[in-house]
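ok trying this again, last paste got cut off
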Amino acid sequence: ITSYDSHSIDINGLGFIRPGDPRSELVLGLFEEGRALAMLLNGMTSDDWQRTPEADRIAAVSPIVQLRNGKYTVPTFIIHGEKDELLPCSMSARFEELLRAKGVKGGLLVVPSARHLFDLSLRPGDEGWESDVLPGYRFLLQMLE
């Protein structure tokens, strides 16, 4: 995804969906139909991708469930666009609050007016890099010290 062509035409207004691109069509379809989690956990054999996964399987891959259960200890810095079309910013805020409550190092940077995957085309030196991306790298470097 780091070398994804983010400059092509976006007819869906999502900022990363490209017409005719199989990856884009898959992602859009999964989210529109609410089947992304089922497909990720069940795979695409027969009709399994349409079946809702069992709660314990969902819990096993859910960072917030693992954090609540004390099994998530990975330092985590979240950069979330305020205008994200796929995930509400409030989810990241709740996760970051729980990180603090559980004593896990973390942080949250909400980028005003930014959409989902807003940083795909940002590179060092671009406008927005220092304010919207670099803090995440600084956090990672601090964790390595």
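PB: full thing came through this time. Residues 89-101 form the longest helix (13 residues).
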